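Researcher: Let's walk through a ligand-bound prediction step by step. First, I give you the protein sequence. Second, the SMILES string for magnesium ion. Third, you return the three-dimensional complex as structure tokens. Ready?
Model: Ready.
Researcher: Here are steps one and two:
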Amino acid sequence: MTQLGLPEEILACLFDLDGVVTKTAAVHAAAWKATFDAFLREREGEQFRPFDAVTDYDEYVDGLPRPDGVRTFLASRGIELPEGEPGDPPDAPTVHGVGNRKNDLLLATIRTGGVEAYEGTLRYIEAVRAHGLRTAVVSSSANCRDVLRAIGAEDLFDVRIDGVVAAERHLPGKPHPDTFLAAAHDLGTDAAHCAVFEDALAGMDAGRSGRFGYVVGVDRAGQRDALYAHGAHRVVDDLAELGGQA
Ligand SMILES: [Mg+2]
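Model: Step three, the predicted complex:
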């Protein structure tokens, strides 16, 4: 292991955004809950079973592209909606409509509440770069660039593969490994020489199926065992635990 807590062969580090670099997981979970609860209440009346911002979030939506999150959670309740179009209004009873309702709520929260970064992660990325490793941010979020700008972290990454780039290149999102593989490719290396840093179970699955050299689970939600079960080589509460501090 190196001073960065990584195997010697690792040449590049691929970081998830929400929940690893920024404290936006709770903001996403709250926006999903408000969206799904309003949807379910409209459909099933006051007897509806609310979206659980911990268990439903972890199991069905965390880390997935927005339409996949809508589809997967609603399927867990036996509900199937027409896909609709990306430009559907937020009250349309379609996969895209529900997703747009969630995104409107999220953007409003980001604009009013600001975005906070995990200091331990920022310091670790700086250390990684100081040791000559290359870095990428790999996020399902279509708002990745705005969020990076909001925390002044645009320059910390050599490559950005986010929801916008994934749509342009037709890359399937997590749990598929394609967005991480695209980041490795753009950094001029391959999966065996990359470490993946993720807080979502879907991200662990992507790390395992893509055969990445090292997969670090970041436990923000008390799900250490589940992160290991989904393929983490190591689980930490904060990236500062890996070392790299001068
Ligand atoms: Mg995440």
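Researcher: And what stands out?
Model: Residues 16, 18-20, 25, 63, 199-200 surround magnesium ion (CB under 6 Å). The chain has a mean pLDDT of 94.
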